[in-house]
Design brief:
The protein is of the alpha/beta class. Helices cover 37% and strands 16% of the residues. The chain contains 13 helices and 15 strands. The strands form 3 sheets. A 7-stranded mixed beta sheet has the order 4-10-9-8-7-5-6, with helices on both faces. A 4-stranded mixed beta sheet has the order 1-2-3-13. The structure holds pyridoxal-5'-phosphate. Pyridoxal-5'-phosphate (PLP) binds next to helix 5.
Length: 435
């Protein structure tokens, strides 16, 4: 490791606790588009986007201009004290954009976890019911309710209990490792129908305010349900007057080639949580939902000092323009097609790739030691990420076993940068396959 990074790492280890983890040892000096440069001048191609936050690229000129312009005018007034146009304008745009031909309202918060907290507050208040159903492999954040809804124990939950009550967890549509031991499509998506049985054995529908699901599970391994899954879940939700909350924190803002990932399933959620890429790197999250639910909590029941701060709202308005008017969403779809073909080719060449899945440029490669037994190739995935880092590519893994490689690169990545990154990936795959 070069000089300045070494010194900073020493300082980091002395002054910052280990809890806030680091996946690499790099300290970044500047970043543009899909390239980051560290304090020692090393260049990295970014396939991670700061965990899915930089869909429009690092320092997109329109985002930077919006933030600068806003910073020149005012930085903070608190929406609850004196209001500003960007908050209201952004809410109106999201209400228009979200699926569902019904009246909607939007409120803002700062992080994905905070959006999830607010979504649960809203549905409990509106439905006057306590229970929430979530999913195995799900991830919803690190605050107490969001952590309670999160599935993976290590590292997210171990030692942090007790957790929030009235949280019930169902198996998810993880076809590659079907929790019911079935095979799609013969299974007839029995994992969705299982909800009816769940109401007998775990929690009554009359006590259930909402079901919260990621459209594609992010931290859980880019697990992508079949087309029938969400329509089936929603039908059961309607039957019992249960709200369907779709957590788009990682999959939203164009990551799957559509603005909201749930659009791929043709479902209209009652509430949507959105964060990460939708404000181009500024801290901002949203809860978008049916007016009758969003407007149920009393005045003062929702909010926060920084929630929907003006810099973030302006950045998000710029991101919407870039994705929807400047054609970046189209570029995301093209990027997804290219990546999918390339990963399928890699799968033919490298036995270790058990499955390629996902939508648009939100793709996961599940690594296994044996395609028959599907033994997770956890150590190999770790080594792949390390090798890529050494060769100048930032890559992330995910999944309960840490054996899924995921793509979260900015959509503005150039063809040349993409090729360079993919070449590093292939070279590293070759090395872990032939140790
Ligand atoms: N929900 C999902 C689906 C996520 O992927 C994440 C973060 O990765 C969160 C919620 C929590 O977001 P934040 O880290 O901004 O609190």
């Amino acid at each position: 490791m070069a000089n300045q990074s070494e010194q900073l790492l020493k300082m980091r280890n002395e002054h910052v606790p280990q809890g806030p983890f680091n996946t690499t040892t790099a300290f970044i000096r500047e970043a543009k588009g899909a390239v980051m440069v560290d304090v020692d001048g090393r260049e990295f191609i970014d396939f991670a986007g700061g965990i899915g936050v930089n869909n429009v690229g690092h320092c997109h000129p329109k985002v930077v201009a919006a933030i600068k312009d806003q910073a020149d005018k005012f930085i903070h007034t608190c929406f609850h004290v004196t209001m500003y146009e960007s908050y209201v304008e952004l809410a109106a745009k999201l209400n228009e954009l979200a699926p569902g031909d019904f009246p909607k309202m939007t409120m803002f918060a700062n992080s994905g976890a905070e959006a999830v907290e607010n979504a649960i507050k809203v549905v409990r208040y509106a439905k006057k019911r306590p229970a929430v159903i979530c999913f195995e492999n799900g991830f919803h954040g690190r605050t107490y309710m969001a952590m309670s809804l999160t599935s993976k124990i290590k590292p997210y939950k171990l030692g942090f209990g007790p957790f929030a009550p009235e949280v019930y967890r169902m198996p998810y549509a993880y076809c590659y490792r079907c929790p019911m031991g079935l095979k799609y499509p013969k299974c007839n998506v029995a994992c969705a129908d299982y909800l009816e049985e769940f109401f007998i054995t775990h929690v009554a529908p009359e006590s259930t305010a909402a079901i919260i699901a990621e459209p594609i599970q992010g931290e859980g391994g880019f697990v992508t349900p079949p087309p029938e899954y969400f329509p089936k879940l929603q039908k059961i939700c309607h039957k019992y007057d249960i709200a369907l909350i779709i957590d788009e924190v990682q999959a939203g803002a164009g990551r799957t080639g559509k603005f909201f990932a749930i659009e791929h399933w043709g479902v209209e959620p009652d509430l949507i949580t959105l964060a990460k890429s939708f404000a181009g790197g500024m801290p901002l999250s949203a809860v978008i939902g049916r007016t009758e639910m969003m407007n149920a909590p009393h005045v003062g029941g929702l909010g926060g000092t920084y929630s929907g701060n003006p810099l973030s709202c302006r950045a998000a308005l710029a991101v919407l323009e870039i994705l929807l008017e400047d054609g970046l969403l189209q570029r995301a779809r093209e990027l997804g097609n290219t990546l999918f073909k390339r990963f399928q080719d890699l799968q033919e060449k490298y036995e270790i790739i058990g499955e390629v899945r996902g939508k648009g440029p939100m793709l996961g490669l599940e690594l296994v030691r044996d395609r028959e037994t599907k033994e997770p190739a956890t150590e190999e995935a770790k080594e792949l990420v390390r090798l890529c880092f050494e060769k100048g590519l930032i890559l992330l893994s995910c999944g309960n076993f840490g054996n899924v490689i995921r793509t979260l690169m900015p959509f503005v990545i150039t063809d040349e940068q993409l090729e360079k990154g993919l070449a590093v990936m292939e070279e590293s795959l070759h090395e872990i396959s032939n140790p």
